[in-house]
């Protein structure tokens, strides 16, 4: 768990982070969004003390980060930046083993960890371990960057625009992979982005910043239905609201009894995907199957549309 308490950063007379407090629960993803210059990266860097706070403190699992030596702190907290910061003259395996080497892990343990991570990120160790960063695609470099940050099994992973350089298709896959890996490892993630779609796709909670202040810290659904200020409402995108809401809800939440014709949707699909399928197939209803393939009911256009309305 990360507890941020009254964090403030000043450069001269300019306040770039103004009295921000928030708590990130263990094993969750918090996304920090906001306009350019809002103070997002500065807030993130105060967590691992790449930037020293002017006021306030950060506790990680109850321990004040000021009480942890800086090098130890950085080894305990993974950090991924846009462009991934891979060492160009080191191989993929050497890049991933950076922190284990600094921590003095023996060669065999390091090599086993590198192989485990390459497998986890679907990069065949035989093919990729000895490659250099310039021999990889952008998506592969991104995965190596995250693998490197996770090498010493940090409980906390900080990510600053980690998908910014990827094209939309690879970006979406990389986001899905991150969530899958994060759920599996139970890592606590704080991720900075200016992309609202990314925030809604990844965030268990979203922190909205503007001009150094934290305007709202809430679940994606709360941000949509109860924006704290006009700025939050605007940032969330008024035209997008119903669709964002539907993408957060699952078919199981709009399940109706009865049968229907057509190719079934899954209980675990989002209502947005189900509506898309309904519109495209020209049907008013579609059957719903559970994950074992058994039919459990149906969904209707009318039922889904009702879920996209903000009125409870
Ligand atoms: N070392 C520094 N000295 C002076 N001002 C700084 C320093 N670092 C950041 N700033 C200023 O602090 C403000 C917040 O910067 P920060 O990088 O945290 O914003 P951000 O929300 O991450 O922006 P972006 O999305 O554009 O990266 C900016 O106005 C920036 O110019």
Automatic annotation (TrEMBL):
The keyword Nucleotide-binding applies. One of its GO terms (molecular function) is ATP binding. Keywords: ATP-binding, Nucleotide-binding, Transport. Transmembrane segments: none annotated. It holds the Pfam family ABC_tran. GO terms for biological process: quaternary ammonium group transport. SMART domains: AAA. The keyword Protein biosynthesis does not apply. Residues 2-236 form the ABC transporter domain. Belongs to the ABC transporter superfamily. This is ABC transporter ATP-binding protein. It comes from Microvirga mediterraneensis. The lineage of its organism: Bacteria, Pseudomonadati, Pseudomonadota, Alphaproteobacteria, Hyphomicrobiales.
């Amino acid at each position: 768990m990360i507890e941020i308490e009254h964090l403030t950063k000043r450069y001269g007379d300019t306040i770039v982070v103004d009295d921000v407090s928030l708590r990130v629960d263990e094993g969750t993803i918090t996304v920090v969004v906001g306009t350019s210059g809002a103070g997002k990266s500065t807030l993130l860097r105060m967590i691992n003390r790449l930037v020293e706070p002017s006021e306030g403190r950060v506790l990680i699992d109850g321990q004040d980060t000021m009480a942890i030596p800086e090098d130890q702190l950085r080894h305990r907290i993974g950090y991924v930046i846009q462009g991934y910061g891979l060492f160009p003259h080191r191989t993929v395996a050497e890049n991933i083993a950076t922190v284990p080497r600094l921590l003095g892990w023996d060669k065999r343990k390091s090599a086993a960890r590198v192989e485990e991570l390459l497998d986890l990120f679907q990069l065949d160790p035989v093919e990729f371990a000895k490659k250099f960063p310039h021999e990889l695609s952008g998506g592969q470099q991104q995965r190596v960057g995250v693998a490197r940050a996770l090498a010493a099994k940090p409980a906390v992973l900080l990510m600053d625009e980690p998908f910014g350089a990827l094209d939309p298709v690879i970006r979406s896959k990389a986001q899905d992979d991150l969530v899958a890996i994060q759920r599996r490892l139970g890592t606590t993630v704080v991720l900075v982005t200016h992309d609202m779609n990314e925030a809604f796709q990844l965030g268990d909670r979203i922190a909205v910043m503007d001009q150094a202040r934290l305007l709202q810290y809430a679940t994606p659904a709360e941000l949509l239905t109860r924006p704290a200020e006009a700025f939050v409402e605007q940032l969330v995108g008024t035209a997008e609201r119903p669709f964002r809401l539907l993408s957060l809800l699952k078919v199981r939440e709009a399940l109706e009894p009865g049968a229907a014709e057509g190719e079934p949707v899954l209980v675990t699909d989002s209502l947005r995907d189900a509506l898309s399928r309904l519109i495209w197939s020209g049907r008013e209803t579609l059957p719903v199957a559970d994950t074992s393939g058994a039919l459990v009911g149906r969904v209707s256009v009318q039922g889904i549309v009702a879920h996209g309305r903000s009125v409870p």
